[in-house]
Amino acid sequence: MILELKRQGLGVSAIARQTGLDRKTVRKYLERGLEAPVYGPREPGERLATRFGSYLTERLAAFPGLSARRLHREIKAMGYEGAYSTLTEYLR
pTM above 0.90? Predict the structure, then answer.
């Protein structure tokens, strides 16, 4: 796209405005003769908390008042490497 716009006679600033890229980025891709990468949405990966889903369900069924902090400490001791916020999102 950048190279095509340059072939059409547009300057670096005009290409930057049209593509939403910085002028230095446009200049870099023009010098290298490359197109800017087009990124799509990431593929969803496995949620870290799913491996502990049965344990979490069991603990919450036995003790409904357990806090997410407590559960986070427990599964962290079992090898959970995710963040507290990831766990709370999973529990919701």
Answer: no
